[in-house]
Structure formats: C-alpha cells, structure tokens
Specification:
Layout: H1 7-14, E1 21-24, H2 31-40, E2 46-51, H3 54-63, E3 71-75, H4 81-88, E4 93-99, H5 104-108, H6 134-140, H7 143-154, H8 159-169, H9 175-185, H10 199-210, H11 212-226, E5 227-237, H12 240-255, E6 259-261, H13 271-276, E7 284-290
Parallel strand pairs: 1-2, 1-4, 2-3, 4-5
Antiparallel strand pairs: 5-7, 6-7
Helix pairs in contact: 7-8, 7-10, 8-9, 11-12
C-alpha cells in the first residue's frame, strides 16, 4: 500500500471542516482522501477524488467505500479539474490537494514500466489508454531532440552522451535494457551518485509521456475558479521543475492580491518520516489560501 507523504502537514494546511468540500485531484490509492473523509466524520462534508489511472481508482473505490455518498470519485487528469468539479455538482471547494508524485503501486508494478529497478515494458503511461508511451519516445525520437528532452525534463547534464548511447543501442523494449545503457553512458568519474544514474533520464521520459508539466500548468490556472473564498490549495511536488512552477504561481497570486502564501518556507518531511518512507525524501509541500 502506498504510504501517504506529509499526511499530518497536509491535513493541517487544508484545515478540514466537517461541512467543507474538498478535492483530492490526484487520488491515487486514496490515502490522503481517507484521512480527509475521516475528519469530515458524519457531517455534511464531501470529497471529490480524481485520478486518471483506472487501477488506482479501483483501489480507492474499495478503500473509501465506507464513506458512501460523501466520496465522489471520477476518472480524469487533474488538469481537467474545472470540468470535473463542474460535473460533480459540488459547490466551490474549501480545499484542493494535489500530490504530484508517482505512487508506490505504479513504481512497484513492473508491467507499468516506471521503474529502472524492475524489468518491464517501456511504458510509463499513468493513463493506460494514452497513445504515447516511453517506448515510442526512446526508439523514434531523433538524437538531438532526445538529448534536449532528457536535459529539459531530467536536468541531466550528461544528456548528450546518454542520447547518443540510446540511439546507438536502440531499439529498446525493456526498462532494464535502457537503464543499463544510460548507466554506462555516464562517465565513471561522475559515478558518486546519491541517486541511481538512470533516475533523471527515467524522470524525463515519464514527464514527457504524461505531459506532466503541461498538465500542472493547466491545473494551476484552473485552481482559482474551483476554490471558494478562503479555500486552500496544498501541492506536494518531488522535483525542482514542478516546485518552481508552484512557487512562482503562488507568488504571482500573492502579488496580485488573489491569495496569501501559507508556507513561508517549503515544508519537507521530517527525518523520522524519511526513515519510515524513503520515497518521501524529495517531497516539498507548498500551500496558499484564496483571498477573493
């Protein structure tokens, strides 16, 4: 079961009220949603849960079944939050949560192709019905374009060497085949990594496959329209590309008088949480409250 990251802090910043309306825009297996619904108790509060992964949605439905009509679960990308919220018939939300991380069940399922540690097909689609997979990107993208993609989305300084090695060795079918080639492409003197050498390349491919930054931009643009006055937005990000966009958006809202930032400094997991759940170590939480 996926362990919810920064759960206590998330609930604190959402300031859940028993009669409130909340949206978990990246539902996953339902850990954060379950905690929110528990705080709603048997009040009039509602939660809208959104996820594009049918497997995650099915798991969340089972997990949250006891909350009955208080939990409204819908299939979709968090970028579509405005349309999905409208379709739900719920009033403006008192709180919105987005956890931008890949869930443990996605990483641990080799057939999804997210992990370089487990042999599986080069897939990486969060929505299995999406047309583009990592296999097409890796095997069909021209070398220069591939290098640019790995540098832009993975912030990988060895992107040109990696792209050259990939083009020379392709076609690829398996995650582990790609991970081996990427690892060998990085100079041995650069081998003192705190992370696996393939981490940034796999991150770049996942972002490209799922259009994650584009979806995040659309999500952020839609938030003011779904939040009630005084409503709060909490976002958990896991790499600088996401966090930078969230930080800049919140700052822009504050300058315009549309919101106030609740997190003067980014909130990170405690050492105790990281020890229990090592996957939380890169998490960053930012929160804001809508003024008008």
């Amino acid at each position: 079961m996926h362990v919810s990251v920064l759960l206590r802090e998330t609930l604190e910043f959402l300031n859940v009220r028993r009669d409130g309306v909340y949206i978990d825009a990246t539902l996953g297996s339902g850990g954060h949603a379950e905690a929110i619904l528990t705080r709603l108790g048997e009040g009039r509060g509602k939660l809208l849960g959104i996820d594009q992964d049918p497997a995650a949605l099915a798991m969340a439905r089972e997990r949250l079944a006891r909350f009955r009509e208080q939990a409204i679960l819908m299939a979709g990308n968090f970028a579509e939050i405005e349309a999905l919220h409208r379709a739900s018939g719920l009033p403006a939300a008192d709180g919105v949560l987005a956890d931008l991380g890949v869930s443990a069940m996605q990483l641990d399922d080799a057939s999804r192709g997210f992990s370089f540690m487990r042999e599986g097909p080069l897939d990486m689609r969060m929505d299995p019905e999406a047309e583009l997979s990592a296999r097409e990107i890796v095997n069909q993208t021209p070398e220069r374009e591939l290098a640019d993609l790995i540098f832009k989305f993975g912030e990988e300084r060895h992107s040109r060497r990696i792209a050259r090695a990939i083009v020379k060795a392709r076609p690829f079918r398996k995650t582990t085949e790609l991970a081996q080639v990427v690892t060998r492409a990085i100079p041995s003197r650069a081998g003192l990594h705190q992370i696996h050498p393939a981490t940034r390349t796999f991150q770049a491919l996942r972002i490209a496959v799922n259009r994650e930054l584009e979806s995040l931009e659309r999500f952020l643009a839609a938030i003011p329209s779904v939040l009630a006055r005084g409503g709060r937005i909490v976002i958990l990000s896991y790499h600088s590309l996401e966090d930078r966009r969230v930080k800049q958006t919140f700052q822009s809202w504050q300058r315009e008088g549309r919101a106030r930032i609740l997190t003067r400094k980014v909130v990170r997991p405690s050492p105790e949480e990281v020890e229990i759940n090592s996957r939380s170590r890169s998490a960053k939480l930012r929160a804001a409250e809508k003024n008008s």
